[in-house]
Amino acid sequence: MAYNTGNPPGSTSPKDLIDNAEDLDFLMTGNGVSHPNRLGVPLKSWKGMEGQHDADQIRREEEFDAAQSERANEYAGDKLGRDTEFAEDQAERIAEFDVDQSLREVQFNTWLDLSGFENPALTYVDGSPLQVDRVTQTIVRSGILYTVKRPASFPFALTGTWATDTPKLVVRTDQPLRQDLADMIDPLNGVARIGVPGTGKMLDEILATKVFPGIRLGHATTSSKGIVSADYIVDRAADLANLFDMYPDVEIDTQIAINSRVTISKARAKVSCTPTGLLLAGPGMGQSYMLKVTGHHASLDRMNMDNPLMLKAVSGGTQGGITITADHCTVMNSEFHHMLNSVSTDATGEWYMPVYFNNVAYDCLGAGPGASDDGSTGFGENRGDAFNIWGSTGRILYNTAFCMDGQDARIAFHCEWLGTDFQTRPYNPKRDGYDYEMVGNKAFGNFRRHFAFERVNRGLMRGNISGGGATWWAIALTGCNDCLASDMTILYDRPITNTAGAQWSPERAAIGFGHNGTNTALRNIEVKFSADAAGRGLTSLITNLPAYGAVIDNVRIIKPVGQGNVGFILDKLPDAKVSNCHVVGASNGFSTFGAQDIWFKDNTATDLTGNAYNVTGGATSHARIEGGRVERAGRIVYATNLSSLSVRGVQSKGVTGNHIEQFGTSGAITIDGNHDEDGIGKLVGFGSPFTLAQVRNIGNNPGYVYNLKFQLACITNATSALNTSGKHTDKTVVADDGFAYISTGSSATAPWAKVSTLTTPA
Q: Which InterPro entries match (predicted)?
């Protein structure tokens, strides 16, 4: 130790500090198990503590192993004792049972002897006469015991013909009653045979009004009733209908062919299929649904239905799986194969709140003729939906539909309110046509439309996926009010050679939108075109009935560069707002005809062969284009015949033609804050010099080259449009006298400062 001062604890001497540091170094790094501190008191070193810990750990492990071994030995001994005790008790119980059974047998035989009946019984053989000598003799037939009905004279002769002898005998066992109780076909048997004391009712009457959790009362299987078909020819429709009429809970566990529609009429009926259960449409089912649900609150679960002959018709009745004409019915976890219509809520009645959940429709058929005339007035447009709801309201949740290759089907998922003309029940304005949900579904193949709302109010279409194949529109919203379609993904791959439904002349696009309605929004939708796809990105459905107040936000149309066709066609959409949208590879990005107060905000357009914005209007047409970016396009804006035009804050690069070009705008024009990064921005068609009445706010547009002038009277007249619209401090204009003028304020009478000398850099 360097100093060894011997000072007591709490010393502030630097020498003690050095001694403490030396001691600490020995304690932490030394090889000894201990080391004295500066006062000579031995302390355990780090090495000493580690050694003691290791020794203690070894000791604890040995103690644990010994205790564990002791517990295992005790458990084994206890178990052996328990096993021995159980075996002895079991042997004792068996012995006692055997003794008791022997005693009961003796007692029974004694009772039988005392009852006056003899044992063994006489055997009745059909066709053979039998003589009964004494009243105490019994007769047995098919395991059932009988005696001769008294009064009778003995010996008594039985003819051997059972129909003749039955009235002369009395049953002496309960076997017939057991058979009647087990009979679930005859409505006079089964639970109808059981009375409940004190109620004056039979058991089946009580079961009809009671719910017993965990117990499947009123349950029957098709196998237990012998309802099975070897193929799709043998018709068991009547047997299945009888089963549905008798039981509220039916489980289909066999293959059953039906050749006529079967109705499920019980309220709260439950129908399901096991993995071995299958309903097959027979040859007579080409114009009929297989099942019709008329009982409210019915539930169909895990159904498995097939139309193996692929029957269908273009007119008359509709082939299908399930049709619903009741309220609050559910179809879930089910599979449908080769159906024209898999599940449908009927167009009459305004049936309320059907729910389709987690079902799959495979190889759906279509009634459409492709591009030809099918000889009907419908041309494939009055049938051919995988899942549809006509009427009041409903939910289509997390289902999947696949169209069979080569078919021309109509709609994969469809909700439509037909209006009061089709109703058979009184109109309910609070619910009829309202609150539809189409969420989390997937559609694949040649349906004309994958997801469709028609005349829907307050509808939600969200999270659906169109996986390719739609021949008209992947998403269609027509005549809708206060609806939202959002968070959806579309693969659009219709080749130009696919002309399904050509008789209807559809404007083919990934999204079809409009035709009447108000306040409907499209948000967060991604549309990707395949390399050989032909069609628009989004098209408004042009009719004489415009759709007001549409909101189109964050819709992305991605086409292969140079593919062409328009990204967004936005005709007949008054008061529409189009924001944060993106279009790539189209001919023109955003195109509108007859626009009334349309607002484009923060959109981007890239790799276009034509114009980013084509805007054509009329007497009351106003267009605002604000923010966003245009790269590699012919023009940014081409506008004609508008009432007013405003283009503000648009960034551009790689524009090859006139950047902003307009003709025939009758009212105000504002071009301000736009920036062309190439420095070649052009304004064309603005009619310089501007007159007193013309509202022309041509502000600061970096990268634009233009020589627009105002008549001098516009500057000197306080009532001119230049002084009354868009004026601000430091606003600079050029007059037709060749001088520049700078505004000193924003009021109409604020003076303009004349810049007397203009210098042009050489």
A: Pectin_lyase_fold/virulence
